[in-house]
Amino acid sequence: MKFSAKQIADLLGGTIEGDATIEVSSLSKIEEGKPGTLSFLANPKYVQYIYDTKASLVIVGKDFVAEQPVKTNLLRVDDAYKSFAKLLEMYNQIRRDKKGIEEMSHVSKSATIGKDVYVGAFAYVGDNCTIGNNVKIYSQLFYWRQCFHR
Description:
The chain is of the alpha/beta class. The chain contains 2 helices and 16 strands. Strands 2-7-6-5-4 form a 5-stranded mixed sheet. Strands 8-11-14 form a 3-stranded parallel sheet, with no helix packed on it. Strands 9-12-15 form a 3-stranded parallel sheet, with no helix packed on it. The radius of gyration is 21 Å and the shape is elongated. The model has no long low-confidence stretch (mean pLDDT 89).
């Protein structure tokens, strides 16, 4: 999943210094930053890495003052730690909000499946089972015999 710097800034109430259209799809430590990744700088002990990081976007506090040119795009926020934690929580919510039936699962033809259901890989839904709306069945779970789950 990709997000633009602008989308992230809007979520966090921050401002972009650099290219607001740059996209990131994963996270990295600031010292291990690669193109396409998002990192953050909150601890002064890591300031040295912001000048050479290859991360496409780095979250920094509004009070961060660069002592030399920064090559990456910055997202300035009130509190870099809190903003990064908020982003992680949002990401986890998106990850948990899966929908659909993965290929490597088994759902019996006689099972009744509600709306917006997720059935993970290697999950098994047996004959005559009823799975209600918005139910998440994660990998390697088994439902069999006249089960009912809402």
